[in-house]
Each structure stands twice: as structure tokens, then as C-alpha cells.
Design a protein that fits this description.
Mean pLDDT: 80
Organism: Gymnopilus junonius (Spectacular rustgill mushroom)
Low-confidence stretches: none
Strand content: 15-25%
Largest sheet: 4 strands, antiparallel
Radius of gyration: 15 Å
Protein name: YjgF-like protein
Distance between the termini: 9 Å
Helix content: 10-25%
Structural class: alpha+beta
Number of helices: 2
Order of helices and strands: EHEEHE
Strand order of the largest sheet: 1-2-3-4
Length: 121
């Protein structure tokens, strides 16, 4: 078995990862959920968890960098300690997509929200 923070859950066991992000409590969700080797990271924005304020309100670029760090930290407890591979995909063509229009983000300073899926062995 690969060395990891905890053993791989059984195929039917669901594990949840919570953070200090105030929106998790407010809207009732977990930052990440793991079932077997699959990890699903919730939509992530650039929030300072100590103040609840949006970080970098005028920069989509800086928000994106912060979000990727948050996603990595959500997956970190479950990753294989012997190696690390991070892969980003940007699809051109006809990918599956989710599009939400009209209402905007829960905070007008948010410019970017990213969801992520991972496989950890």
C-alpha cells in the first residue's frame, strides 16, 4: 500500500475535508469529498479564511493562483506521499461544461471560481 496520510477508504466509504472558509458553514458543504481514490473539490474562490474577505478583488490572475493553492491543500491530506503529479487541463473543442448565468458570485469582488477532481492512489 502506498504511504499516505490515511488508508484508502473502502469503495463505499465517503470522507470529507472541511476548512475554515466561512461559506462552507454558511451554505452547508465540504471543501472536498473523497470516495475510493476519487476526490471532488468544491467550487473554490479566493477567500481569506480569517476575515472572510475576498483576496485580490481586482485581479482574476491573483485570485486564480490563490485558488490553485487552496485546491492543492484540499487534496494534500489524501495524496500519495511518495510522489506528486499535478495536471491541469484546458479543453478546446466540445467538452462537458457547466455554465451558470445571471446571478453572479456570492460576493461581487469574486472574479474566479474553480472546481477540481483528482484521483489519489
Amino acid at each position: 500500500m502506498p504511504e499516505s496520510a490515511e488508508p484508502m477508504p473502502t469503495p463505499y466509504e465517503i470522507k470529507k475535508h472541511r476548512t475554515a472558509n466561512p461559506y462552507e458553514e454558511k451554505f452547508g458543504y465540504s471543501r472536498a469529498v473523497r470516495k475510493g481514490p476519487f476526490v471532488f473539490v468544491s467550487g473554490t474562490t479566493s477567500i481569506d479564511t480569517t476575515t472572510g474577505q475576498v483576496l485580490y478583488p481586482s485581479s482574476a490572475y491573483e485570485q486564480t493562483l490563490k485558488i490553485f493553492l487552496e485546491i492543492i491543500s484540499a487534496i494534500e491530506p489524501w495524496r500519495n506521499k511518495r510522489g506528486r503529479r499535478i495536471e491541469r487541463s484546458v479543453w478546446a473543442g466540445w467538452p462537458a461544461a457547466t455554465m451558470v448565468f445571471g446571478l453572479g458570485f456570492v460576493n461581487p469582488d469574486m472574479r474566479v471560481e474553480i472546481e477540481a477532481d483528482a484521483v489519489v492512489l
